[in-house]
Amino acid sequence: MANVSVYDINGKEVGTIDLNDAVFGVEVNEHLVHRAVVSQLANNRQGTQKAKTRSEVRGGGRKPWRQKGTGHARQGSTRSPQWTGGGVVFAPTPRDYSFKMNKKEKRAALKSALSQAVADKKFIVLDEFQLDEIKTKAFVGVLKNLEVNKALVVLEDGNKNVELSARNIADVKTAKVNTINVYDILKYNTVIATKAVVANIEEVYA
């Protein structure tokens, strides 16, 4: 089992914790991690782009000039793609970019991302993370104590003070155990979680 230090919000080491290898010590599957990231980004796309083809552009029903004898190249419509104001060749239409990943693939990708974070020493465990009031300055102070700047903070349910204190910080994102994902784990430099959250993650994903 991987053994990592446990810190308090002042940045002082207060103990250690053993992490379950079934979640935090698996062999990293780069292929599944890549698929998970591509899947999330694709699923976030709206897919609403649209341009008109020659059949959808208004006008152009009349042949602009007769077929022969004018000296011009033959033309059937003023809305052909080569004309100004004409339709677009192979125009984009609204579509769904999402694709499915199996549940086992998603879990394996998430475990790989967590294991990589632990291996790279980018996973910080706190004994607890509580704030007496909603205060961005207090949250920033905790990050400075931990020497962290860009972080994904995984919180337990009901921790509103910490969640609301972090929402105005550009390089910080808060998440719950059931909303963590591979993309965010890779995007942020550090993953911060409390001992209670670690236990919850191991319970859900082990």
Automatic annotation (TrEMBL):
Q: Which SUPFAM superfamilies match?
A: Ribosomal protein L4 (SSF52166)
> Which keywords appear in this protein's UniProt record, sorted alphabetically?
Ribonucleoprotein, Ribosomal protein, RNA-binding, rRNA-binding
Compositionally biased region (Basic residues):
60-71
The reply on keyword Kinase is no
Under Gene3D superfamilies, the record lists: 3.40.1370.10
Q: Which domain of life is it from?
A: Bacteria
One Gene Ontology term, aspect cellular component = ribosome
Q: Which is a Pfam family this sequence falls into?
A: Ribosomal_L4
Q: Where is this region: Disordered?
A: 43-86
What InterPro entries does the record tag this protein with?
Answer: Ribosomal_uL4 (IPR002136), Ribosomal_uL4-like (IPR013005), Ribosomal_uL4_dom_sf (IPR023574)
Q: Which family does it belong to?
A: Belongs to the universal ribosomal protein uL4 family.
The free-text function statement in the UniProt record for this protein reads: One of the primary rRNA binding proteins, this protein initially binds near the 5'-end of the 23S rRNA. It is important during the early stages of 50S assembly. It makes multiple contacts with different domains of the 23S rRNA in the assembled 50S subunit and ribosome. Forms part of the polypeptide exit tunnel.
Which PANTHER family does the record cross-reference, listed alphabetically? 50S RIBOSOMAL PROTEIN L4, LARGE RIBOSOMAL SUBUNIT PROTEIN UL4M
Q: How does it assemble?
A: Part of the 50S ribosomal subunit.
Official protein name in the record: Large ribosomal subunit protein uL4
